[in-house]
Every structure is written in structure tokens, then in C-alpha cells.
Amino acid sequence: MRLGRVPTLLCAAALLLAAPGPALAKVEIRRIAFNPRGADSGTNEHVNREFIYLVNTGPRARGLRGWKIHDRGRENVYRFRGVRLGPGDTLTLRSGRGDDGAGVCDGDCPVFYYLHWNLRNYVWGNRGDVATLRNRSGRLVDRCRYGVEARSPKRC
After folding, report:
1. What is the maximum alpha-carbon separation in the chain?
2. What is the per-residue pLDDT across 60-84, written as a single tens digit (0 to 9) for each?
3. Using CB atoms within 10 A as the burial measure, which of 4, 29, 108, 138 is most buried?
């Protein structure tokens, strides 16, 4: 029985599929804090207890200029400007008003960014919502859903 080229081609295809491709930066939604403790007072301090937490889990930096985060109905849309997340860098986007900035570290460690939506009201629904992260071209990057049974903060 002659096997010919078929097993050779199958082996080559298997090797190509198993070989790792170029690693891309991956930005993920890790957590959403919704329905902060206490009555919904609407004070800036209380609104800022709502946040969404992102992390770059990839080995390369990713610029977020033009990226968006929005809620289920797209009533609230946040557009990123000049943020660049390096490998392991994290970003917390709070719903209320405040000064944006970044944590400083000496040496080779991740940077922690903190940004503010600068809204006067809450973003994330108390009885369920969907957070969607889209890149500059509008393509879905990540999504996190939670329902009425979820506990805050929701781990994604």
C-alpha cells in the first residue's frame, strides 16, 4: 500500500495550525462595579463608585485612541483619547467627574490609569446591563454581561 503525499500534507497542515502566530495585545474587561452600596444619592462621590476595569493581557502595547465603551442601549458612550496600555497595564474608568491620571512606578512595572466618564448620573444598570468595548473601527473587542442576580463588582 502506497501512502503518497496525503500524510505528508496532513502533517504539514497540523504543524502550521499548531504553530503560534504573532501575539497581539488583548484588552479585556475584567470587572464592572455597578449599584454601589447605599441609596442612589446621585452625588459625584457615589456615582464614582461605579467603574469598569480594563487590562491589557497581551505582550505588546495597545493604543486606545478612538476606542469606545458603551452600555446595552448605548445611552452612555465613552470615547478614549490618548491612552496607551502597555503589557499588564490597567485602566479604571469611573462614571462620575474627576481628574484623570496614571499611577507612577519606578522600574519595570505596569501602569495604572484612572479616567472619568464625567457624567452626573450612573452608567451601569442595577438590574443588569452589558458593557461593550469596541476598537477604532467599531469592531467588538470584549463584552461583559450581568443580570439581576449578579453581585457587584461583576468579574468578567
Report:
1. 80
2. 999 999 999 999 999 999 999 989 9
3. 29
Domain 24-155 superfamily per CATH: Lamin Tail domain (2.60.40.1260)
* Secondary structure (3-state) at 4: coil
How many angstroms separate the Cα of 74 from the Cα of each of 37, 65, 102, 119? 25, 19, 27, 14
Q: Which residues of the chain have pLDDT under 70?
A: 1-25, 105-107
Report CA torsion sign: 80, 99, 26, 130. negative
pTM for this entry? 0.81
Kindly report the three-state secondary structure assignment for every residue of 60-126: CCEECCCCEEECCCCCCEEECCCCEECCCCEEEEECCCCCCEECCCCCCCCCEEEEECCCCCCCCCC
Q: Give me the pLDDT at residue 103, please.
A: 84
